[in-house]
Amino acid sequence: MNVCMRITFKCTWDEMIARLEHNMSTNSTSHTSWAVAKEDDHSLIFLANITDFAALNEPMMNEDQIAWDTANGCEYTAYKIETMNA
After folding, report:
1. Phi and psi, residue 3, nearest 5°
2. CA–CA gap between residue 82 and residue 69 (Å, rounded)
3. How many distinct helices (H) and strands (E) make up the chain?
4. What distance in Å separates the CA atoms of residue 66 and residue 80, rounded to the nearest whole number?
5. Each residue's pLDDT tens digit in the chain (86 positions)?
6. Range of the domain at 45
7. Is residue 25 part of a domain?
8. What is the pTM of this model?
9. CATH of the domain at 6
10. Structural Rg of the chain based on CA atoms
11. Which H helix or E strand runs over 47?
């Protein structure tokens, strides 16, 4: 996994997970895997192995997604993760 995002939101947990599942399934060529860890009912940690950042940009930055994020109070903090070699 090479990306970590902390996402906070005002919608329900189920609505947020459904949106993530939709976005990731419609753009399956951009990643090889992803996982979510629940912090609480309105925040999560998203981990993903992104293989094509340009391809991921379209579903994450289009007008529909920006409107959805605004309406649901989503805030993203993204981090790049690198492997630590011994």
Report:
1. -135, 140
2. 28
3. 3, 4
4. 22
5. 689 999 999 999 999 999 999 888 887 778 888 999 999 999 999 999 988 887 777 767 889 999 999 999 999 999 988 888 76
6. 2-80
7. yes
8. 0.84
9. 3.30.70.100
10. 13
11. strand 43-50
